[in-house]
Amino acid sequence: MTTPSLKTFTSRLIVTLLAGFGLAGCIVPDTTPDNQWRIVEDGAYAADVSVDGQLSVVSGINNGIHVWRFGEAQPLFQWSHQSEDGDQGNNLVANVHISADSQFAVTSDREAFAIWSLSSGEPVGFWRIDESTIRDVALANGGRGVLVGRSSGKVMFFEPESGRRIEFLGHQERINSVDITPNGRYALTGGNDYVAYLWSTDSGQVIHTFTHPSRVTLVALDDEGRYAFTADSQQKSQIWNVQTGEPISQLQYIARQKIFTDAVFSKDGKYLLTGAPSRRLYLWEVATGEQVGEWKVAPRENMSPPSAVVYGVGFLDDEHVLSVSSSGLAELWSMP
Fold first, then answer.
1. 187 and 198 in contact (C-beta within 8 Å)?
2. What are the Cα distances from residue 114, in Å, to 7, 108, 155, 286?
3. CA atoms of 129 and 113, how far apart (whole Å)
4. Which pLDDT score, from 0 to 100, does residue 27 have?
5. How many angstroms separate the most distant Cα atoms in the chain?
6. Hey, where are the domains in the chain?
């Protein structure tokens, strides 16, 4: 294992507590949500929803990163990355992930990542990568470990408190998606080499190999340690038994190509919820791979044709799911 160098720039994090940011007028989508909130103006670059659906972290196109609590009329915090020369400039944060315990979040642009406390809103630290560019990030509970997938095909696991870091060198091409178990001991990574690997962050040893006929575009782990989800750029979207590495089901759809942007398993293990760049959320039955629900979010304003990418999805409770999309809206939906 090799250890890349990291430069810490804790002084280059800017945190602003917001006093007021009201709800804006609603846009009526093709399917009607139970509720809808304007959470960033001018649209979003990235977003994540916490496991319990209570928190959303959204990277806005023009106004930094906002942290929202479900149903509240103003954000909890506003954050931003700052460039080396001190200029805030336009927000370029394209990756966001909330830890499974909802206590910390990681954000990244192409060259740096930051960890934040979701209880205080304060930064934990800011680190700049000196090799290739960041493609995706994921964070363990307590902010204990962060996973950084890069365009070089390398994946770094880094422990901020101890400074320990290792590189996983199993992939041969660009990384597209990463996820990590809540305890930070296992990572799931997928890339352009048609492979997803489940591996140990202690040793870098591969535990399971999940192969695809095309590039792997999204991976997701069940926080309860039951399942893994891997999806490629064509037709294979597979749910696996994470303990044995054996397939459980393949998502059933007729389309020749279906791309997913986010995926999360329900706490009871019955369902998989996915977001897509086609304005859609889909609900799938884990045991069979059959689709049992579908919703269509509102598009971005003044877009022709109407479009939106669903960046973040989550289960709010047993009856509702939540979406956050590039339209800058959070939307609440009733399950079928």
1. yes
2. 12, 6, 16, 33
3. 8
4. 39
5. 53
6. 6-334
Whether the bond into 29 is cis, omega within 30 of 0: no
Residue type, 121: G
Low-confidence residues of the chain: pLDDT under 50:
1-29, 84-89
- What CA–CA distance (Å, rounded) separates 322 from 227? 21
pLDDT in tens, 293-321: 999 999 987 776 889 999 999 999 999 99
Residue 27 · residue 327 · CB < 8 Å: yes
pTM for this entry = 0.90
Single-letter residue type at 97: H
Q: What are phi and psi of 138, to 5 degrees?
A: -150, 155
Phi, psi at 30, each rounded to 5°? -70, -35
Alpha-carbon distance of 16 to 318, in angstroms, equals 34
Contact 167, 156 (CB under 8 A): yes
Tokens of 7: 């430069």
- The residue to which tokens 């959070």 are assigned: 330
- The pLDDT value given to residue 71: 86
Question: Are 188 and 196 in contact, with CB atoms under 8 Å apart?
Answer: yes
pLDDT at 133: 96
Q: Can you read off the two tokens belonging to residue 317?
A: 């409770």
Question: What CA–CA distance (Å, rounded) separates 90 from 227?
Answer: 38
Instruction: In whole angstroms, give the CA distance from residue 49 to residue 62.
Output: 20
Q: What class is the 6-334 domain?
A: mainly beta
